[in-house]
């Protein structure tokens, strides 16, 4: 399954400045593995040391927040869009 992954500005140093890249995988976990294979170091910015999504990183498959879907097991059908969005906080 080929998906498009939107990369936030802060992580584009891993993708050579590309804002959107292709990745392979039937689930979000597989897509992140594919990203890591092509852009080493990027997975550690999305997942914590225990392999869970970092608290301040939101990931969407199409328009669905994966935290309210199946997390890393969220299916990524062929042609899906995966968006990695760092949370913004402030006051």
TrEMBL record:
UniProt-listed InterPro entries: Beta-grasp_dom_sf (IPR012675), MoaD_arc-typ (IPR010038), Mopterin_synth/thiamin_S_b (IPR016155), SAMP1_3 (IPR054834), Sulfur_Carrier/Prot_Modifier (IPR052045), ThiS/MoaD-like (IPR003749)
SUPFAM superfamilies in UniProt: MoaD/ThiS
PANTHER family in the record: SULFUR CARRIER PROTEIN CYSO, SULFUR CARRIER PROTEIN SLR0821-RELATED
Xref: NCBIfam families: moaD_arch (TIGR01687), SAMP1 (NF041918)
Stated name of the protein: Molybdenum cofactor biosynthesis protein MoaD
Native source species: Carbonactinospora thermoautotrophica
């Amino acid at each position: 399954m080929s998906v498009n992954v939107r990369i936030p500005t802060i992580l584009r140093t891993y993708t050579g400045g590309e804002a959107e890249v292709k990745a392979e995988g039937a689930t979000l976990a597989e897509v992140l593995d594919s990203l890591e294979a092509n852009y080493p170091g990027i997975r550690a910015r999305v997942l914590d040391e225990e392999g869970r999504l970092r608290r301040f990183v939101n990931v969407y498959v199409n328009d669905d927040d994966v935290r309210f879907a199946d997390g890393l097991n969220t299916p990524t059908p062929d042609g899906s869009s995966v968006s990695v969005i760092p949370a913004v906080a402030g006051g």
